[in-house]
Write a structure and sequence with these properties.
single chain, 230 residues
């Protein structure tokens, strides 16, 4: 099943996703957020998600690349992979749960119990459909390349017909979505405040090293500006 890209714009777009039974956490409800712009910002900052589904009655979770295009997530895969085949054969599709997480800090408390991490995460519940429309498939694959390195899709050879046939893409609409965020320092018990143990936050950030050119790179091919920007 495939649906061509929707080019129509809704007259109004809600600022937030509607909470559901699956998107309201049972603990630390104050950390849950449904703001659309916030959810998009968390999704757009990285490119690796974990996709969970049920296979033969047992849960399976796979890491995979993804990209957001408007209110859709596109997930990359091989035509031979089990979830891609299941999504293509199932009607109305494959039920999945996609998760994205950023670790922003290690929270070290005076007690072992109150150790934690500062994080930003998004959980998406939905139905995955295999993309078969050629135009939508090219759009999705370009978006996935640019999600990893912005500007790269235009600076590489597009997939040919054979490569497109060997590549599969899943589409999941953003409808049942929530974000969850923790910030701040440790939440130590009052009785532990005078213990002689260091407490605080160790910030965590993603960094990139200097690009290493391929050994067979043609002479004169300069490092592109979008890589300098990393």
């Amino acid at each position: 099943m495939s649906v061509a890209p929707d080019t129509t714009e809704p007259t109004t777009t809600p600022d937030s996703y509607a909470p559901t039974e699956r998107t309201v956490p049972t603990r630390s409800k104050e950390r849950a957020h449904y703001d659309r712009e916030l959810v998009h910002s968390i999704l757009d900052e990285t490119y690796l998600c974990h996709m969970g589904f049920v296979r033969d009655g047992a849960p399976v979770v796979l890491p995979t690349l993804y990209a957001r295009v408007g209110e859709r997530l596109y997930v990359h895969g091989s035509t031979g992979s089990r979830p891609l085949r299941m999504a293509g054969q199932a009607d109305p599709g494959l039920s999945v749960c996609l998760t994205v997480t950023h670790v922003d800090g290690l929270v070290l408390a005076r007690s072992a119990f109150h150790h934690s991490i500062n994080y930003r995460s998004v959980v998406v519940h939905g139905t995955a459909h295999q993309v078969t429309d050629p135009q939508e498939k090219r759009l999705a694959l370009d978006a996935i390349v640019d999600q990893v390195v912005a500007g790269r899709a235009a600076d590489s050879r597009p997939a040919d017909a054979k490569e497109l046939a060997a590549t599969a893409v899943l589409r999941v609409d953003l409808a049942e979505v929530s974000a969850k965020i923790r910030t701040g320092g440790p939440n130590d018990e009052p009785k532990d405040m005078e213990l002689p143990h260091w407490a605080g936050v160790v910030p965590v950030a993603r960094t990139y090293g200097a690009p290493i050119p391929s050994d067979d790179l043609e002479p004169g091919v300069e490092l592109p500006e979008y890589l300098r920007g990393l």
